[in-house]
Amino acid sequence: MEKNENEELLEMEKNENEELLEQSPADIQQEDTQEIAKSGEEEPDTEEQKVSNGRFILWSLAGVYLLYTSYSLCKGYVTGEEGTSMGFMLAGIAFAAIGAGLLFFGIKNMLSEEKIRKAKAAKNAAMEAAAGGELKKEDASGQNRSMSIAERANMVKNLEDEEEDGENEKE
Q1: Are 107 and 60 in contact (CB under 8 A)?
Q2: Which of 46, 68, 71, 76 is most exposed, with the fewest beta carbons within 10 Å of its own?
Q3: Helix axes 134-141, 86-130, angle to 10 degrees
Q4: Cα separation of 31 and 37, whole Å?
């Protein structure tokens, strides 16, 4: 049974290699470019990003709340309100440090994620420009399907005929 599986795998690999040999280098490069561009594409407003932005906003709000609480605790101790002790002042200082940290990291992470998203968008635009806009044209026209060997051969033949016509016109 194991030999049959190995033979099938070898035969499949041989067929794939034959198909690759029949393709022109331009077709192979175009398919590779499409695969690379597709692997880098992401939806700009994905659910994960919404959750991530929500997390950063929540951290910032928690930081603001802790800063306000620390201000209230320290103010009570400094003004000498009844029932306050040195513990309130120490708690206020700890709340201020934690609140400032949450606020700082919440804003920092939100801004860095925005930069990352812009960099990915620029990378996708550069990949599309490098492909000469072929990716959008193919997606729009519905030609983003695999072609049979006969279709590829006809396409190559038509391109060669067009090149010969172009050379004849130049002469």
Answers
A1: yes
A2: 46
A3: 80
A4: 10
User: Is the model's pLDDT at 14 over the cut of 90?
Assistant: no
Give the Cα separation of 12 and 151 in Å (integer): 21
* Greater model confidence, 103 or 82: 103
Query: CA 124, 126, 129, 130: dihedral to nearest 10 degrees?
Result: -110
Q: Is the pLDDT of residue 88 over 80?
A: yes
pLDDT attached to residue 41: 47
Q: Which 3-state string (H, E, C) describes the chain?
A: CHHHHHHHHHHHHHHHHHHHHHCCHHHHHHHHHHHHHHHHCCCCCCHHHHHHHHHHHHHHHHHHHHHHHHHHHHHHHHHCCCCCCHHHHHHHHHHHHHHHHHHHHHHHHHHHHHHHHHHHHHHHHHHHHHCCCHHHHHHHHCCCCCCCHHHHHHHHHHHHHHHHHHHHHHC
| Res 60 pLDDT > 60 | yes
Within a 10 A sphere around the Cβ of 95, how many other Cβ atoms? 20
